[in-house]
């Protein structure tokens, strides 16, 4: 058995999404609920994804400040 800190439920990627491990429900800014259906889901943190609340990779083309 591995310690929980070796496989955290939430991982914040630098300049990228928040990875969520396991079954969760994400509430978007409008209050709509989105259930995760994958072992790991990527939640957009840049606000530019066309697939909100999920990351679609758009953050990779946003110029860094
Ligand atoms: S974090 Fe990836 S598109 Fe926003």
Automatic annotation (TrEMBL):
Which InterPro entries does its entry note?
Answer: FeS-contain_CDGSH-typ, MitoNEET_CISD
Keyword vocabulary terms for this entry:
2Fe-2S, Iron, Iron-sulfur, Metal-binding
Looking at the keywords, is Iron-sulfur present?
A: yes
Task: Give GO terms: molecular function aspect only.
Answer: 2 iron, 2 sulfur cluster binding; metal ion binding
Q: Name one GO cellular component term.
A: cytoplasm
Q: Which SMART domains match?
A: ZnF_CDGSH
Query: What is the name attached to this protein's record?
Result: CDGSH iron-sulfur domain-containing protein
Task: Tell me which species this is from.
Answer: Aeromicrobium chenweiae
